[in-house]
Structures are given as structure tokens and as C-alpha cells.
Amino acid sequence: MKVALFDWAHGGHHAIYLRRFAEAVAGHADVVVAASDATVEQVAGAPAETISLGPSRPDIDGAGLRRADRRVLARELALLEDIERRAAPDHLLHVYADAVLPQLLVHRRFRMPVSVLLFYPRAHYPRAFGTHLGRVERAKANAKEFVVAAWRRRADANAVLALDEEAARRWSARRGAPAYWLPEPTVPRVDLPDRERKRSGCILYGALAERKGIDLVAQALTLEPTAMRLTIAGEAAEAFRPALERYVREMVRSGVEVDLRARRQEEEKGLLALASAKCALLPYPRHDGMSRVLVEACSVGTPVIVHDRGLLGHLVREHRIGRAVDCRDPSALREAILALAGEGADTTAYDAALARFAARFSEERFETAAIAPFRKRP
């Protein structure tokens, strides 16, 4: 059996997902990874044949309704057809299918079964997590649910995977292709620093962009003079760098010791950076879906502060692995940061909960979920 993993996007954790998928599936099938030039370079050494899709997918908005976005999505379908011809896989998994799923729905039937991984379902947020969705948000979320339901009824739809366990559970209760919860890929073990000797301050880690709430952290830490260490680590989009540097200057003037590492972090170095902080900040004001940084932080025993919205807010409250606050409220965010990362703050009370949460994302559990779509069904 041959399985093709397709992901034209690049940046963030895309290469990690592809590598972990390839490692999990390779023991059960031949694997082909179809990805952008940059991602192919990053997955070198994975147990898979690689096919380059050329430059990575241009950024598109979430709806994909602009003319330029439609051209990008049409190109993505053409690349999928090309992989269908060149690799002739028995199964294909699109590892980042949210934007292109409406186009897949009306596309001709593929010769191989197709599975999709969806990162951003949210129609269940109000009932499941108590997250308010505005009228436009609700309409978009419900439209996505309609597309998912219609896709699952196609003859070539093999499976739908979601990083949101509640979304997968709800889909499974309805007819159509199977739906599976995919736990975050396994986080490698690293030698951790001694907690009492090494941990200090807080960290904002991951792809650096305006949507990540760095402005909210700056507002919170400049309400009054703040003697604290803040590490900001991750790849920054060129267009965002001037704003990022401005936020850093504002915090430094307020007394914050800022360690800015605006470059792509290798996985192990990123984990060590997370392990060196007393808490990790995920103040994403409009984030939907899961966050790998959440799992990475918990895996190294670092509690988190998240914006109290959607899946992230629910997980932090449910598993007691940090604090979920309205990060748009500078005073509330500041109080949470000082409580977890201020001078004399002791976060050892979170240790047991963090370990339990991290254990949910074991190598065995991920491999079981990763190969589930490709197993023969009775």
C-alpha cells in the first residue's frame, strides 16, 4: 500500500506534522510526502519519498473568496491531480485541508480514497466550550459544517481527521466517512534544566505575527514598570518585524528584559526555551483550533496562559494546566503573568496536571490515530 501525504503550506509546524505522519505510517505502508521546496528540505531524512510542489502556497484569507485566493486554490487542486498521476497512491491524506475543502467537494471524483485533516472546526464552540460566536462567525462555522457533512458522503471520501476531539466525536455521531480525533504529534524528549536553578520569566514561542497577541502582552507589561524576563522566540514575517520591534522597545522602556529570537527555532531548541520559562504565553485573541505550542509547553512542565476562547481555553480550564483569561484585558493578562512568572512565583502545583495532559499525546496514541484511516474496514 502507498500513502501520499500532501501539504502545500509552509512555516510553523507543517514540517513537523508531515515528518511525524511519515514516521507513523511508514511501518504500515510506503509513504510519499508532497510538499513545498522549503518543507521538503525540512523533512529530509524522514522515511518517505518526497515530491516537491515548488514554492509554498501564498497566504490566503480564511474564506478563500477573493479572486486571487480562488486562483491559489485552483492551483492547489491542480497539484493534487498531479500527485494523483505521478505517485499513483492507494490513499491520499491532505494534511491542511481547511481552505480547499469546499473546492474538493465540487471537484471530480478522485481515483484513490482521500482523507482530510481539518484544523479549524468551530460550530460546536458555543455549546461545547461556552465561546460566543458573532453572527458572521456562526454563519461561516455552520457553512463549514455543511461542507464537511457533504464531503463525508462522497464515495471517494475516506476519512476526516481533526485535532479537536469534540469536533471528531460530534462528526462520528453522523453518517458518512469515519471521523477520527488526531492527537498532536509526539513531542520528543529533551534533557530539561533544573527547575529551581534555570526557570525564569515567561516565553512567547512560535510563529510571530500580529494575530499572536504580542501587542496584548506589550499592553499588559507596560501598564506600569515591570521587572521581568520575556523571551520571544520564533520566525517572524518580514512585514511584521517593524511592529514586533516597536513592541519590544515599549516593553524594554517599561523595565522588561526582552530576549528576542526572531528566527526559526529548531524543535529541540524551542523545547529547551519553553523549559527555561516559568510560563508560556498563548494570548492569541482570535485563535480557533488546537495549538502545538500548548502541548510542547506541557511536555516540558511549563504552565500556560491562554486567551479564554474556544478549544485552548477549554483545555486549560478542563485540565488545570495554567490560566485562561481575557487577554484583551491588560490588567487581567498582567495579573496572570505576574502570578505565574513574577518574582517568587511557584508553579510546581501545576506539575502533576501538566504531566497528565502531556501523557495524552503519546507516540502510541498518535500512531494509532495516524494509521486508522488507512486500515481495512470490516
Description:
- With 378 residues, the chain is an alpha/beta fold.
- It folds into two domains: 2-185 and 362-374, Glycogen Phosphorylase B (Rossmann fold, 3-Layer(aba) Sandwich), CATH 3.40.50.2000; 195-359, Rossmann fold (3-Layer(aba) Sandwich), CATH 3.40.50.2000.
- The chain is built from 16 helices and 13 strands.
- The longest helix is centred in the first third of the chain and has 21 residues, at 67-87.
| Low-pLDDT segments | none
User: Helix-strand pattern, N to C?
Assistant: EHEHEHEHEHHEHEHEHEHEHEHEHEHHH
What spatial order of strands do you see in the largest sheet? 3-2-1-4-5-6-7
What Rg is obtained from the alpha carbons, in whole angstroms?
21 Å
Largest sheet: 7 strands, parallel
CATH topology of the largest domain: Rossmann fold
- The quaternary structure here is single chain
CATH superfamily of the largest domain: Glycogen Phosphorylase B
* Head-to-tail CA distance between termini: 18 Å
- Counting helices, strands and paired strands, the structural category is alpha/beta
Average of the residue pLDDT scores? 94
Q: Treating each run of at least 4 consecutive H or I residues as one helix, how many helices?
A: 16
Under CATH at level 1, the class of the largest domain stands as: Alpha Beta
- Specify the CATH architecture of the largest domain: 3-Layer(aba) Sandwich
Q: Indicate how many domains the architecture comprises.
A: 2
